[in-house]
Amino acid sequence: EFMQACWDIEDVQAKGIQHLASFVKDKSAFPYLLTCTEVITHAMKTHIDSLDLQVEGCTLLLEILSQALKQGMMMALDESVVSCLLHTVRKHSENEEFLSMLCTLLMMVSASEVAAENLRKVGIIPDLLSILRRFLHNDKICFSCCAVLWSLAVSENNADQAVLESALPVTSAVLQEHLHNGTVAESACSALWALALQGCLTDSDYEPTAALLLDALRMNPERAVLVKNGCLALASLVRLSETAALAILLDSKGSGIELIKHEYHLHLDEPGVAEALCLLMNEMVQYEDVMLDMRSQKMEKLLSEIKLQFPFS
User: Record keywords: Ligase included (predicted)?
Assistant: First the structure.
């Protein structure tokens, strides 16, 4: 109430946020802190020029969200709160260190479907793409932004087709830049999967995107989630175009079929990986020439192995 009575006094807002932060570790106070997100973001928006206040507000929101996630709670921040965060993103879009923290916050926020919908409504995607272009070298920013993109793009009722189409070259650039960083590559593969699901590719995109996803699988074979999401992204591409299927068969760095076999044997105990591989193969056999090639590479043998390994799935 004190903060709300003195919006225009920066020192009051800063001290208020600091005082609220002192309650974060107090379990009995936590339910009340959950109701403070609007007050915190409004203070940030009102004093948007104060970087110190932005950092303190963002740190407190991160701590509240982290505690909520630890307790299995999903915080659905409303449109006004999300709008305040977007104002902060735009005002401090050049500050790499602060943006790194802010993008982590946006990633945590976007885990809630309601909050993800609100982020989409306030038009945050172009801002995310602009941040990615500017800070392509920053692995933390790339990881968080790709995770947010995935959350926003994966929704079935997506009205941002044109905006999402502009996300493809940026997301591909992130994956190319961070192929050796498994965490970032995993996040970028997920984002590419969502973009493929939304049909955001043109004819000229299928081959290079498929080749890039195969590179990600080759560079990070031990990461089960990356392998699963990479295969799901490839399956979405193949569903859209035979060009993608041929790109997998004829990849210049080696047979995509051999890579699929290798990945399956690396992750024998991962039903999610096997399922994604089966989905990919199921899409590939829709094309007769591709199916003949797969048969010549003895894919029936792999399918029989999968059937034996997961008889009840």
Answer: no
Sketch the domain layout of the chain as residue ranges.
1-89+97-102, 201-312
What is the pTM assigned to this prediction? 0.90
Nearest Cα to 190, choosing from 208, 216, 222, 159?
216
Reported for 28-35, long-range contacts at CB under 8 A and 24+ positions apart, including other chains, are 30/67, 30/71, 33/64, 33/67, 34/64, 34/68, 34/73, 34/75
* pLDDT, tens digit, 9 for 90 and up, residues 72-129: 777 777 788 888 889 999 999 899 999 999 999 999 988 888 888 888 888 899 999 9
Nearest to 249 by CA among 239, 237, 257, 240: 257
Structure token digits, residue 188 = 């970028």
Cβ atoms of 192 and 172 closer than 8 Å:
yes
| Cα torsion 34, 35, 40, 41: sign | positive
